[in-house]
Give the backbone structure.
Amino acid sequence: MMASGQRNATIIIVDDHPLVRDGLRLRLEAVPGLEVAGEAGNAQDALALAEALNPALALMDVGMNGMNGIVLAGIFHERFPEVRVLMLSMHDNLEYVTQAVRAGASGYVLKDSPATEIVHAIEAVLDNRTFFSAGIASRMIQASALQTPVERLTPRESEILDALAEGLSSKQIAQRYGLSVRTVETHRLNLKRKLDIEGQAELIKFAVERRRR
C-alpha cells in the first residue's frame, strides 16, 4: 500500500465498544504501513484525538451512544476535511449510507465483512478513493445515477461554493465560518474533485453561474 521508507498512515478508531476497538487495533497493527494512533469511545474524545493527532483516517462506528457516527462524520468534515472518514456499521440501510456520504464520509463498510475487506477499504480511502461493501456499492451506483454532482456536495461544501460566488477569499470564508484557511483550501480541493473542475478560476465561474440559476 505504501512505498518503502514512507511513514505509516495514522488511523484513529472511534467505536463505543472496547472489544470492537481491541479487535480492530490488533488486525490493523498487523498491516504494514498502518498505525493505530489512538482510540475513542465517544464523539468528544474523537474530536480531541483528531485535533491532537491529525490522523490520516478515522475508522468510525455509525451506531454509537450519544452522538452517532454520521453526525460526527459531518463535524469531522467541517473541522478536519483533510482527515478521511470510513464508516463501520452493522446496518446496510441505504439511507444510512447516503447520509454518511452527504456528511463527508469516503466509504462505508459492514462490521461483519472479512478483515481483508476492511483493510482494502482503508487502503482505498487513504488513496483518496471511495469504498463501499459489495452489496451496498451496487445500490449506491443506482442511487448516485439519479443525483447531480452538486447534489452530492456536503452542506459545508455548498456553503463554501456560495461564498465563492460572492467573491470571498479563503481567508474571508474562514473568518465567516470559524475555520482555518487550510481547512477552507481543503474544502476547495474537494469541491474541484467532486465537480470535476480543474482550476480555481473555473471553480469560481461555476459557483457564480450556479448562483444565477
